[in-house]
Each structure stands twice: as C-alpha cells, then as structure tokens.
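Two proteins were folded this term; both appear here.
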Amino acid sequence: MKIEILSSAMSDLAEGRQFYEEQSEGLGEYFFDSLFSDIDSLTLYAGIHPIFYGYHRMLSKRFPYAVYYKLREKSVAIVWRVLDLRHDPKRIREAL
C-alpha cells in the first residue's frame, strides 16, 4: 500500500507541531514523529478503520488527533486531514 499525503494534511501537521512546540520545547517534534509513525502504519492497516463523514478515521496512539483518509483502487491511501479531536464535531465535519 502506498500513502499520499495531501497539502491540507501537511498543514494540519505543521499547525499541531507548532502548538505542541509552544507548550514545551521538543514536544512539537515528538508530535510530528508520532503522527508520521501512525500514518506510516497505513501501509499495513489501511482500510480497517471505521468510516466517519465518508472518510476512514484512524486515531493517533499518543495525541488526541485523528487521521482521515480514503482509499484509491485499494492500493493507495490518501491522507486528507489530520485533525485535533478536541474541537467541536461540527468544525471537524466542516474541515472534511
């Protein structure tokens, strides 16, 4: 399985990285590495996650974030958004 990360997801990751770096030095880098590790796991597990708002939703293991992705032809996982789950569900739905 190949993984394609859209610019919208990269922007989400950069925003989260900045937020956590402001909380504690080095935490932003840990956030970034952790989320990329979660995204990398899609090479093995893409398609097994439940569907919310028309996207597969994979929960991050270490942070309150979810990776929203779709499958293209069962061989490519396209990561659309990486969203903070502490936001209002309406805001998440609108972001998707």
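Next, the second protein.
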Amino acid sequence: MEDKTKRKLSRREFLRLAGLGLGTAAVATTAAAPQSAPAARKMSKAEFSDPAGRPKRPWWVKTVDEPTTEIDYNVYERFSEQTVTVRGPGLGIHGGADLPGQLAESGAKLKAERLANGTPGYSHKDQAIYNAQMWDLRGETYFLGPQKADTPETLGVPKWTGTPEEAAKMLRAAMRHFGAATVTIHKLTDDTRKFIYSHDPDGKELIFTDEEQAYEDENARYIPKKCEWVVCYAMQMSAETLRRSPTHTACQTTLATYGRSRRTQGVTQEFLRGLGYQALGEASINALAVTPAYAVLSGMGEMGRMNRVITPEYGPMVRIFKIITDLPLAEDKPIDAGIMEFCKSCKKCAEACPSGALSFEDEPTWQIAGGWNVPGHKAWFEDAVKCMTYWNGTSTNNCTICFAVCPFSKEDKAWIHDWVRFGIATMPALDGFYRSMDDAFGYGVQADPEEWWNLDLPEYGFSTDASVLEG
C-alpha cells in the first residue's frame, strides 16, 4: 500500500535543497516583487487610506472574484447545526447512540487519574485555569443582543446615516476596539443565504422573513431579509499556549477566546442598536451560520487541509464569529494568498493528528467523508467522528494540535517568516521546500506544558502588534 505521509528529508538533503531553494527564491523574488521586501507586521498609527477602513495587506495577498474553495450552489443546501455536525447530538447520530456516554465515562476517569497523578498539563492548577475559563462561558449571548443601549428614538435623534464605506470604516474601528483582530464583510445573496443554518444548536428553526424587525419565539428565530450584511470577526488565540495541546493548559486558551467573543458580540450589537440598526448574533457557541464559509467569501482567509480557515495574518490561530446586520456596509472580496495551494503539499496537520481524522489526499475533493459533511463545496473533509472521539477521550473536550503545528501559526519573530509567506503566495513550486524548512527548524513541535507557567507572555498570551499588515 502506498505510504501517503510526506517523506522526511535527511539533513544532507535539506541543506542541499536549502541552498538551491534560497538561491531560486532570491532570483524569483527579485524578478517578481514590485517592492524591495515584504515588510514586517506592525501596528499602524496612521489613519487607514482605504475608505472602508480595510487594513493594508502585503501585495501578494490578492483579492479575487471567487474564493479558492470551489462551491456548487446548485448542490449545497441549508442544514441543521444540531443534527448534522458532531458538536452536539450529532455525535450520537453519526458515531452511534452509545458513543457519547462511553466517551463521557472514559474521559472523566482519565481526568481523575491525571489529576491524582499530577500529570503536567492536567494537574490541579491546569484544571483550575481550564475550569475558570469555563465559568466565563456560562454567561449569556443573545440572538437579538442585550437590548439595553439607548436607541436613536430614546435619544431623540435620527438613526445614523452614511455611505457603506463610512459605515464599514466606523464599524471596523469600533470592533477592533472591542477586541476583534480582523473584521471582514460579506453581502448575502440568494446563494450565500444557504450558509445560514436551518436550525440552531438548540433546535430553534432559523426563518427568513419580509418583516422589518427580527424576533424569536419558543420555536424559531426570524431573520428579516433586509439584514443582508454578514460581519465576520476573528479573535486571536495564544499560539504559545496552544503548543501545549491537547492539555488543559492549552485548551483553556480556546475557552478564553470564546469568552472574549461573547463580550465582543454583545457590545457590537449594542453599538449598532445605538446607531439605529439591528445586529443578529450567535445565541450559543457555533450558532446562526457556517462561519468558515462567510470568512472565506469575505476574504478573511482561505480554507486549509485541516478544513478550517487559515488567515494571512494569524494562520489558524483565531476563532471566527459573525453578526448579521441591516446597516449597509461596503463588502469585501475573497483572497488568494497561496494558502490552499500550500496545503496540497504540506500535510503537516494530517501527520500530527492523533486521531487520523485529517485527509492525506493531495487535492481537495467534492466527495464528502460522512453524514456530518454537507455536499456542495470542494474541501479536505475530515472524519469528524474520529476527531470528536479523540477530543472527548482526552478529558479536555478539545485538541487543536492541527492548529499548533501548522506552518502558518508561527509569529513573525524573524524577517524570514515574511519571506516564506511571500514565497508561498508567489512560488508554489517551492512549497515542499518551505515545509521541509519548517521541520528542520523544529517548528510545530509540541512544548512542555509545565514550562508554560514560567513564560512571560503578554496579555491573553498573544501580541496585538501584528494586527495590521503593512504592504
């Protein structure tokens, strides 16, 4: 049987290819680059020149008319998050009725054993910080928002008006201040409304209406068709913390990101309410719509082999959320930064996946992996039952090893990282070489969870200095 894993280069082969690859890259970059070098990431204190407030990305992040993920809207249909995905009851549907209970029992036993043994990453202090982040997730989120802020009517002023570009720039400024790393916008069409779930995780149906105002009752949530703009926003995760996956130490950063996203959603909903507009959000985690679809359509990133969105700024080290509004906004286009193309030859996440859930195929496919997938788009479909079984079996109900080992996950602590991203976007023939470089320098190796407690990390474990890319 053919070995589908990527062959590792010997040290001698790597050094030989390094000389060839860097020499080729130097020639190619000199010929291809319209400027001297890719600039380092940094915060810009100057005003954005873009009328819609879009941050300037490197020139090799191209905007395109169609996303790099192919979509067949004639095949794709709306689906229920409650029963199709394996995050809730779907695990029992697709993996067997007894599986959730068995995993809960074995996970609880393993958790107790690790606690008693003081296993690094699963010890008392590790479980304590994990449980602290779980507490933050017990707060409420609202489809309609908290609805506490003053409206234009109560203030005695007309609703805010401006051009779609002015509105987008204003909203981006506010949401960045609320904690969003990046903000992108997609305007709904009849086709892309299909990415709104038919039913939310709690079983409530999502229904489009011709009415002016959104509302909900015991059985359904009603979305006015006038709410046409999907606002995607990314919240950073700590790459250094996730290098300790799948321990409690690592997984608490995922929980922290979801906790921060709840506040960002609520204050954004109240901000738009104060301007005189509706903002429909996630009533629970992973509710309302297929977030990766809108993130790709609005140019936040591209789909990767791990079947998650990879962004040019942060790689996969983000969690992405969305709000739907009736405030007219300037929309964004998809991008091509060479990310999906790189994933064709990399396969590092698939090699590292402990459950064997990720695909080793060279090309994405239209063929789904199981009933937890929805046909109509071309992707590397994962075996979600294997993935979720491993999650629950680790006692942390999380993993993210694929995020941590991804070559796009490293922070820009050296200029070479910008050159590599430039090469990935412009010279796909060298993708295999860049993957080998990633291995040779020891990137993507999981770190000692006990060491994390001694690190001098910034607030929330990540730096915001990389929030804006200078071209």
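The radius of gyration is 22 Å. Confidence is low (pLDDT under 50) at residues 1-44, 467-471. These notes refer to the second protein only.
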